[in-house]
Amino acid sequence: MSAAHLPALLGGLTLAACLGAAAVPRRALPGVAGAGTALVGAAGVACGVAALDRGIEPIELAGALPLAGLRLAADATSGLFLVLIGAVAVAAGIYTAGYAGRGHGSARTPLVLLPVFVAAMLAVPLAASVTTFLFFWELMALASLALVLAEQRRPAVREAGLAYAVMTHLGFVAVLVGLVVFAAAAGAEEFGGLGEAAAGLSPATRTAVFLCTVIGFGSKAGLVPLHAWLPRAHPEAPSQVSALMSAGMVNLGIYGVVRVDLDLLGPGPRWWGLALLAAGAATAVYGVLQAAVATDLKRLLAYSTSENMGLVCVALGVAALLRATAGNDEPTAAGAAAVVALTAAFVHLFGHAAFKCLGFLAAGSVLAATGRRDLDALGGLARRMPTTTTAFGIAALGACGLPLGCGFIGEWLLVQSLVHALPAGGTLVALVLPLTVGVVALTAGLGVAAMVKAFGVGFLARPRSEEAERAVEGGPAMAAGMGLAALACGVLAVAPAVLSPALGRVLPELPAVTGQGAGAVPAPDLDTVLRLPGTSGAMSPGLLAVGVAVGIVVALAATHWRARRRPAPLRDAPLWACGGAAPTARMQYTATSFAEPLQRVFDGILRPEVEFAVTPYPQSSYLVERASYRSRLRDVVESVFYRPVLRAISAAAAVVRRAHQGSIHAYLAYGALGLVVALLVAM
Amino acid sequence: MGLVASIRRLGRIAEPAPPTTWAGAAPPDQASKHPEAGGGAEALPAALRGSLQLRHVDAGSCNGCEIEIGACFSPVYDAERYGARLVASPRHADGLLVTGVVTRNMTDALRDTVAATPEPRVVIAVGDCARDCGEFAGAYGVVGAVRDVVPVDAEVPGCPPPPDAIIQVLRQVTGR
């Protein structure tokens, strides 16, 4: 079977999975839908591997869409994203069979639409013309909207669905305008033609296309201030859909930026890189700050997605900025650092997809077992749900960006690119890059706080509610889905060399960042020891893991040997409760109390609404009868940016509503008036 | 390496430690052992020699002994140079400094604290109240001396005991 048949296989599998899920009896529905989704994902991975290997030649389907037809093709860059999304879909599909089997999100429509959503996501990087791209982009948005609304009986879900629908379509409009302007100015519709014509466009057109597409794709990737749909839609969607959206769909926002703004539009002026960097930095810090104070497990993960997409965007911005600084005449430190930054972006995309997929699947497992997402009502799951706890632990380690976690390599590469580019470039670069190092460091630090909170409060210690006390594991299918994602986490953390061949093909395809001619820089060597071109940075995650493992074994052996040599008598002692009565679950840290110091430090940004009231006894003001504490955290970007806009729209709508009296005579008059105006204008 | 070299060259700069009054064997007055704990300084756990992490428990003191304990760890007396250190939890501690008579409200807390301290451990009763209820013997809220509630390994007499006396006992445990 040649590579050209793979997209056809993908389409056929999608159709079969849909029809199968629509036709089978209810009992078999979760299994069929899950298996179908996993197969579609596997076909996507096959497509991606073929695209990475040799590329997929353009396929024209003239009759598939009126006027324009569909045009599919894939180069290595597309292949990278195909592999990424396909792999997430495989894990999520297997998980779905167990999750929906336990009655969560098990209505027929969402399960039938699940393979369609995956296929639409896979088709976006396959698209090779503007029409095809926009068609599948919108199909993906609509399919995901339907999936977010899977449990539409709950008002919170409907509200989240509305916010998501509006945001995603505003983003679509921005992408649409940007790409249509691009296509009209370039006089071509296929991506190949666009890329050739891009250099001849006027700077104003290029800037307009850049701004429109970055806004549109940025809203999909969850960049501040267009992130508002993420923390609303992700918690309310069924968990496998959250995983697909958070580990798959948001990456396509980055794909859009890479494809349109870095690849097709070609190298841009320096401020493009700066704009991407600023948007990414704001997103990373804001996202991680909100994650650190969130108490809803899935909302926390959603904000963490925003944070990581911000980091990827920072890496892309740094790459574009350094490339614009470096020039193409000779190999420079800035050029080398630009390549490292681009590598960091792709590696971090993979790392993030792995740990975020695992994180949402584990959160779904908790939700399925307890029905609670509120960290303040969880706890004590480590003993009751060991598999899920291990899975979430691996995901949290990855999200911390610490060594042995799969988020570490990407962040390390990003910091290396920032540090080693310093001698190059003018004042601007010398000023911006150290600040960015600070942003990345702050993000990593707060990320650790957020994940320690999620894992420590959510899974360790004692259960804080009856539901958490009665929690049990979700079964083999869910464990298998999580196991697959955990395996990916482990491989990416210890042996990022697996990405090396793929990146070796992708990076030369993006000369706008990696440079041309004499200035071209080879891809970094992600072997056992990571060596960076043109710099002295080197690191070996594999050897690091071996070192830590050996250290642990030696420490265990030493304590064992000591204990054998001088056995200490075992004795039972009561749990230490600071001399008070036996400790209860109410004495534990809650997610709110754990984050309280952070909330206090970042009071000016987060603006929490805190009410604290003490009611004393009438006899003495020193004797407290009752104390009440209420704290509420809103997304401050939402209340500052969105509310005024929404209020203005409502006001405008109220004005327009006055003209709508419901009287047929009035409407006839409007019609006549409109006709007269049209005739007058035409004359 | 400049720093390490200058540390090596300079060595330790401190006044010589004052002489110990116990000189090998426990003197009868300064640090009298509780009869049940066995006699002599050699009965104190050898594992605690050199380093002693202490948790202080106020079982019902007038705060006189607390001020003296605070003075022990001040720069003037500097008990840390003999290896004794105050810590914030019995889980981190090798020994307890108990002050005051044991009041009814603190009885269970004291027992819990002793149970929470990992073995080998020492319990040191500091001050006359902790030894034999002192001024407060027979008062309505008093359960008894420390040894009536938990086993005591060493005692420091005085009301309040001067820092030298407390440090003498601590040095007896750490052997420094």
Folded structure, characterized:
The complex is a heterodimer of chains A (683) and B (176). Chain A has 683 residues and is mainly α. Among the domains of chain A are: 217 residues, no CATH class; 36 residues, no CATH class; 47 residues. Helix content of chain A is 69%, strand content 5%. Chain A is built from 26 helices and seven strands. In chain A, a hairpin with a 6-residue loop joins strand 4 and strand 5. In chain A, helix 12 packs antiparallel against helix 13. Chain A is globular and about 95 Å long. With 176 residues, chain B is an alpha/beta fold. Chain B starts with a helix and ends with a helix. Helices cover 26% and strands 16% of the residues of chain B. The longest helix of chain B is centred in the C-terminal third of the chain and has 12 residues. In chain B, strand 1, helix 2 and strand 2 form a beta-alpha-beta unit. At the A-B interface, loops of A face helix 3 of B.
Q: Would you kindly provide a brief summary of this structure?
A:
The complex is a heterodimer of chains A (683) and B (176). By secondary structure, chain A is mainly α.
Largest interface: A-B, 8 and 12 residues
Work out the oligomeric state of the chains in this entry. Answer: heterodimer
Distance between the termini of chain A: 63 Å
Average pLDDT number of chain A: 87
Which band does the percent of strand residues of chain A land in?
Answer: under 5%
What share of the residues of chain B does DSSP label as strand, in percent?
15-25%
Main sheet: strands, sense, barrel of chain B: 5 strands, parallel
CATH class assignment of chain B: Alpha Beta
Distance between the termini of chain B: 30 Å
Q: Ranges of chain A with pLDDT <50 over ≥5 residues? A: none
Helical coverage of chain A, percent range: 55-70%
Radius of gyration of chain B from CA coordinates: 17 Å
